[in-house]
Structures are given as structure tokens and as C-alpha cells.
Fold this protein.
Amino acid sequence: MRAQFVLSEIGVGLRRNLTMTFAVIVSVALSLALFGGALLMREQVSTMKDFWYDKVNVSIYLCNKNDAETDEKCSKGAVTAEQREQIKSDLADMSIVEKVHHESADEAYKHYREQYSDTAIATVITPDQMQESFRVKLKDPEKYKVVATAFAGRDGVQSIQDQRGILENLFNMMRGMNVAALFIMGLMLVIALMLIVNTVRVSAFSRRRETGIMRLVGASSFYIQMPFIMEAAFAGLLGGLVACVMLLVGRYFLIDGGLALSEKMPLVNFIGWDAVIAVLPLVLVIGLLMPSMAAFIALRKYLKV
């Protein structure tokens, strides 16, 4: 009987405050969708870093004739065969080096033509203008500075480039997007909490007579508060379910269908469905508990019987 009464009171409360309940559901859904999206964005950045950092190389560019005339680092002239062999030997002796590949100027020119054949500058570049280089694969990409320190300023070396630096710009942009999503999520969360508190307040005020009678017949404070808390929990759970649907649809639209980023960007290792599914229970739990706690706190102040 008590359970039936509580359920009936929940139905009455939802019907009386249908518009505000709908606003709560939408606010909770948007805030939780942004929360889940921020978690997935962080997972995407981590996945991409693990994928790309394992593939990036440290490039040691050697001086050519043109560098000898224009670059102060190559003032002693183009790299000699002896210098080249010494660099190669020193790299092979380093314990942090996994593999070394030498790319000649002709090979660099060929790769350049393959990548930029449709540009105007490709027609005037000649092989002797290209730099030969050593592409060094490290066992631990974080130890780039060891190589940079060992070879920077050496005769025949024009520059040393860590390809991670190119990727960092992308990762920083994604982190910035993540921070923006979290900020908007926080704003939506505040709005949702304010709506929940206001909804509970209106609901408690509209049923003050019923709650007064319940108090007179000996009902406990928790029993009186339960319908209001359950209303908020129900609205929050619906918002969490909507957020879960938004995350699933968003992942499908962005990666598999619609934009089909997985096909357009085959070199990017996108997160799988398992990462999305792992976030959904957390979204549902927060969607259930957050409104319940907000309603419980609000009732202590507004439910005067």
C-alpha cells in the first residue's frame, strides 16, 4: 500500500509540473551528454597519443650545399661521408635507439614529389636542394632530448626534429575543446540543479496540504520526502537515458556514418564502441543520483509541514 501511494504521488507530481520536469530532463541530458563527450574526448586524445607516439621518429637532418651557404649551423660545409658514417655508428651504439633509417636526398626528393606534385614549388625543387636525414625510432619516444643533446651542434647536422611536436598542436587543440566542453557542462549542470530545486519547491508548495495531513497522522519525514525525491530521480534518469542515446548517436554519426571520419581519416585511431559503452553506466548513475541529492537538500529547506 505504501509503495502504491508513493508511486501515485510521483505520477501526480510529474503531471502537475510537466513543463518544469521536461526542462529538467533536457538540462540533465545536455549536461550529461557534454560530460560523457568530455570523457570520450579525453580517451580519444589518449588513444591517439598512444597510437602516434609509438610511430613517430626523431629526424636528424644533415647539411647540404645550400645549407652551407645560408645556414650558420652548416658553415663548415655539407656533411661528409665520414661525418655521416660517424653519426650512423653513434646512433647504433645508443641503447634507446630501436631502428635507424637513412633517407638520401634523392629519396627525400622522390617522397616530396609524391606528396606535393600538384603544387607550384614542386616544379622548381631539385634533388640537390633536399636534405638527407636519419629517421630514428626510439624505444621510448619520451627520450627525444637524449638524441637532441648528443647530436645538436655536431658538424654536418643541420637540425633535429621530434615529430611529436607536430602532433602536440593537434592534441592541445583537442584538450582545449575538452576544457570548453567541461565548462559548458558545468554551466548546464548548474542550470539543471537550479531547475530541480525550483521544481521540488513548487511541487512541495502545491502539495503542502497533503504533506501536512501526512505529518498529522504520523508519517515520517523520509516517507513524506520520498515522492519528491523519486520525481527528481525519475526525471534525472530519463535525462541520463537521453544523454546515453546522444552519445551513441554522436559516436555513430561522427565516426561510422554521416561524417564517416573513420573513412576520411584512416590514419587516425578512433575510439571504439567499447569506450562509449564504458561511459554510459557512469552517465546513468550521475543522472540518477544528482537530482536525488539536489531534491533531498532542497526539501530540507522548502518542505515545511
